[in-house]
Amino acid sequence: LVQRQGKTVISVFHDLNMASFWADDIIMLHQGRVHLSGPSQTIITPENIAAVFGVNALVNENPELNRKQVLYPHA
């Protein structure tokens, strides 16, 4: 609805799966500064997650949602 009205919504997500699902574009911060920005489907990668959050993650394409899905395997 918002998109059809030509409006922009700015949100803060700490859950990368929610960000992937809802956001067209992401600004990923690291230590209070912009680390990366761009389309969510190119920003959410294992390498970017490791660089910003210091964790190893798997990133898969969710075919039902046509969005990336972040998984955190046990160490």
Extract low-pLDDT stretches: none
Sheet of most strands? 2 strands, antiparallel
- Helical content, roughly? 25-40%
> Which value, in Å, is the CA radius of gyration?
13 Å
Mean pLDDT: 92
The percentage of residues in β strands lies in 25-35%
- Can you tell me the overall shape? globular
- Count of DSSP E strands? 4
Structural class: alpha+beta
Oligomer: single chain
Number of helices: 3
In the sheet with the most strands, the strands line up as 1-2
Give the CA-CA distance, first to last residue: 41 Å
N to C succession of SSEs: HEEHHEE
Record keyword descriptors for this entry.
two-stranded antiparallel ribbon, 75 residues, 31% strand, 3 helices, alpha+beta, two-stranded antiparallel sheet
What does this structure look like?
- This protein has 75 residues and is an alpha+beta fold.
- The protein has 3 helices and 4 strands, in the order αββααββ.
- It has helices spanning 16-22, 40-43, 46-53, and strands at residues 25-30, 33-39, 58-62, 67-71.
- The chain has a two-stranded antiparallel sheet.
- The longest helix has 8 residues, at 46-53.
- The N and C termini lie far apart (41 Å).
